[in-house]
Amino acid sequence: MIPLDLKDSLLNQDRVVFVLDDVTANYPWELMIDTDQPLCVRMGMIRQLETVDYEERVRDTTSTNVYVVGDPLTPSNYPELPGARKEADLVASLLKSHYTVNHSSQRLGALEVLNQLFAQPYRIIHIAGHGYYNEADTETAGAKAGVVLDDGLFLTAAEIATMDPIPELVFLNCCYLGQIGGTAYNKMAASISRELIRKGVRAVVAAGWPVRDDAALCFAQALYTELLADQPFGRALKEARQKTWALFPESNTWGAYQAYGDPDFCLNRKGNPRNTNSEEVTVAAEEVFIALDGLSLQIGTSDPSASQKALIKIEETCASDWLKQGTLQERLGQAYGEHRLFKEAIEHYRHAAESEDSSNPATLRAIEQWINLAVRLGEKDSNKAMIEEAIEKGRHLLGIAKTSERLNIMGSAHKKLAQLETDTEKVKDHLRQSAAYYRAAANPQQHEGLADPYPIINLLVVEALLGKEGLGSESLLSKCESLAQQRFHETRSVWDSVTIPDVALIRAFLHHSLPQERANLVEKYRSAFAESSATQREQDSALTQMKFVRDILNKLSYSDQKTVASTIESLDYIQKQLQQRDPIAEPSEGESKQTDKLPLSPKASTKQPAGKKRAKAKRTRRPKRREKG
């Protein structure tokens, strides 16, 4: 039966997302009946978690490997499950035409199951076998809720959560008929699914009670067939339930599977980012947020023009009342900014800041990003007036409260103005203001243990360009390097990874040894890109610090023009090697290998050196996609 307070809102919809907490996740929502047909069969039904403790370390997998296990070895009091082995064989045969499948038709022991789990990254994990859940153990150390293996071992969400990168889809069927009693299957499914979603798995399917073997085969075959045809997770799930209900109406296997995640998740992320039929209608603002989240996850892995078109289409589905919400306008601003559609993003942030919907207000971050993107658009269009207007807004925001984020944005804004200015004294003035903001951002962080290397690195670069090579710079660089290594180990973020070669670059710049270190620096950047699985866009953005240094060296005048030229030549070499991604070409015997030191003492009266052709402007991205430059 459908609760009365839900009936009116559900009967007129063809898709629903249940946002559940730790208690309501245990309820069998899939069993609600609508007249003569189960609700989850008539409409698309998927679960999501209401939680604030999602894992921020998640790194998307690019693997094409799949891990399939059926009926692993268990203690003698657990019977064999031939149905689980049949399901594993079927799934492996379906997936092998699209992926590299790791599957054995033999029953594997615990050590072999776990060793193969950690042998390589996987995009999909499918396991069918015995499950165990003891509610009394869930609050105790070493509690087990998961797939039963032999030798007293279990495969739990904790093991899958330690994988890096994390798999995208996990299907756990631990509820075959014929198992021993005593397991609260619905709570086991909810418990495992919650942990996997929290750790970053994008789609989870877990059986909530015992299933019939032939019906389980039907469900698995239908689900994977739809997913391999590029259907989104929600649609594939609905199709699998409908087919299982049609063929096995006397069994409740159609409703046994709890499904958590993004309804728009697709296995094929190289195609259209939103592969849905035109007949689908967005009926709630929450669906827009879900669609935008799915689109954000595909940045760098799908065609940019297709992603931008999908973003515009998502906005077109919004009702006029939704667009009055500050929260939605802020999220749209973030999405357009991620796709580098700065003009559109700025408009949405402006609407967010001006929203009078007190029930769905925007945050101060909307104003921060309004300023940040205005600076970046001004840089892109060489519009100094736009950047100056953004700086004025930033001063008002700092009048409310000074935060490191706002100070960093202001420091970056003055860097951009310095790059656009042609008057030498104005260039130096903007550099001095930039350094002041970065210093203000870094000071409280140093007192708190140097939480972010970003303002420190920028401060050292700007002051070096002004001829202020301060004492203690090596100590600060070492701290930045150590912190970046520690953060990358925890977050696997591209930007934490790139900070490590950035520090090496700045150290070589400050020590005037770029010509000697350039080949080594190329290797450091390549290693950082490879280790963090950086996309092409992220690799291009990582070169922004080099372009800034090169631009300023060309604008200011220094006492030793020969050394300036060799420094610029080294920066050009590094950029060219990284953009081409060819093996490092060591200098030929006839190529100059200058070892001069660079005295950074700007002299306004000295003629500027002739600069080489400038590379196209690129902008740095910080962790969590907050770019300041």
Q: How would you explain this protein's 3D organization?
A:
- Among the domains are: 65-212, 3-Layer(aba) Sandwich (Rossmann fold), CATH 3.40.50; 285-354, no CATH class; 477-582 and 593-602, no CATH class.
- The chain is 50% helix and 9% strand.
- It has helices spanning 4-11, 39-42, 82-95, 110-117, 157-161, 185-198, 213-228, 233-247, 285-297, 304-316, 326-338, 342-354, 364-380, 384-400, 404-420, 424-447, 453-465, 473-491, 494-510, 514-531, 536-541, 544-555, 561-580, and strands spanning 15-20, 33-34, 37-38, 44-49, 65-70, 100-103, 124-128, 131-133, 145-148, 154-156, 169-173, 203-207, 257-261.
- The strands form 4 sheets. It has a 6-stranded mixed beta sheet, sandwiched between helices. Strands 8-9-10 form a 3-stranded antiparallel beta sheet. It has a two-stranded parallel sheet with strand order 1-4.
- Helix 17 runs parallel beside helix 19 (494-510).
- The protein is globular.
- The two termini are 56 Å apart.
- Mean pLDDT is 80; it is low at 137-143, 176-184, 269-279 and 582-626.
Compile the SSE list and pairings.
Layout: H1 4-11, E1 15-20, E2 33-34, E3 37-38, H2 39-42, E4 44-49, E5 65-70, H3 82-95, E6 100-103, H4 110-117, E7 124-128, E8 131-133, E9 145-148, E10 154-156, H5 157-161, E11 169-173, H6 185-198, E12 203-207, H7 213-228, H8 233-247, E13 257-261, H9 285-297, H10 304-316, H11 326-338, H12 342-354, H13 364-380, H14 384-400, H15 404-420, H16 424-447, H17 453-465, H18 473-491, H19 494-510, H20 514-531, H21 536-541, H22 544-555, H23 561-580
Parallel strand pairs: 1-4, 5-6, 5-7, 7-11, 11-12
Antiparallel strand pairs: 2-3, 8-9, 9-10, 12-13
Helix pairs in contact: 3-7, 7-8, 9-10, 9-11, 11-12, 11-13, 12-13, 13-14, 13-15, 14-15, 15-16, 16-17, 17-18, 17-19, 18-19, 19-20, 20-23, 22-23
